[in-house]
Every structure is written in structure tokens, then in C-alpha cells.
Amino acid sequence: MVGLPIDPPQRNYNSRFALETAELIRSLGGDDASGAFHHDVSRAFFTEQADIAKSAVIIPIAERYGATATDVENAWSEHRFATTVDDFISASYRAGVSGVPAMAWPNRMAVVGMQRPENLVRLLSS
């Protein structure tokens, strides 16, 4: 166990705003910053039932990684990272992603949904 108290929301929220903001963070701080941003957004979604479609949730997280509210709002209104996110979504569908959470590795089908640790070990070992 990883010790993360998961309390999934009763409904799913559109993650498009969060995904495009993650690409803004990547452009400002690189892959590590984008990965950490994704982690924080996932934690907010899965443990706090945060609506990650709302700027009031995403902007404070983005600010921890060097983006200003104006940066986020401008990137979103200009759809600056829309094509990148569209490409990621298309690639995820091809890999078999149909829900969250999802994990994927090169040349393997994605593991989708909440999994017990022993199931992940089995799936990764096969």
C-alpha cells in the first residue's frame, strides 16, 4: 500500500483544463514540474473530490509551479496546448485507456482503473 487515502468523487469532471495547464507547466518548468503538477491535481481529485475543471482549483496548483493566473487563463483562452492534449488523448485511446487512473508504458497496453498492488505487479510481470 502507498498510504494514499483515496475517496473518489461520485462524478467525473472534465480534465481538459487541467491537462492543458499541465502542458503550460511543462513549457515553463519541464517534465519534472509537469509530472509534479499532475500528481497534485490527481491527489486533489482522488482524495479531496476537487472539481479539476474549475480554474479556482487548477490555478492555485499551477502557481506552485511558476505559472501565474494570467498565464493559465491566457493559455486556456488561446487554446495554446490544445493540439498537444488532443494528440495525447488520441494516443491514450490507441493504448486502451478508457478511464482513470490509467498507467501506460511503451509497447504495452494501458492498465486502467484502480488496481490492487498485487494486480499491478501481476500485470507488469506478464
Describe the structure.
With about 130 residues, the protein is mainly alpha-helical. The chain is about 60% helix and about 5% strand. It has 2 domains: about 5-95, putative protein disulfide isomerase domain (Cyclin A, domain 1, Orthogonal Bundle); about 100-125, no CATH class. Strands 1-2 form a two-stranded antiparallel sheet. Helix 1 (about 15-50) packs across helix 2 (about 55-65). The chain is globular. The two termini are about 20 Å apart.
Describe how the helices and strands are arranged.
Layout lengths: L15 H33 L6 H9 L5 H10 L3 H14 L6 E2 L7 E2 L4 H9 L1
Antiparallel strand pairs: 1-2
Helix pairs in contact: 1-2, 1-3
Structural descriptors:
126 residues, mainly alpha, Cyclin A, domain 1, 3% strand
The CATH superfamily of the largest domain bears the name putative protein disulfide isomerase domain
Domains (count): 2
CATH architectural label of the largest domain: Orthogonal Bundle
Largest sheet: 2 strands, antiparallel
CATH names the topology of the largest domain as: Cyclin A, domain 1
Q: By helix and strand content, what is the structural category?
A: mainly alpha
Mean pLDDT over the residues: 86
Which geometry do the CA atoms define? Answer: globular
Instruction: Note the beta-strand portion.
Output: under 5%
Number of helices: 5
The stretches of 5 or more residues where confidence is low (pLDDT under 50) are: none
Mind telling me the CATH class of the largest domain?
Answer: Mainly Alpha
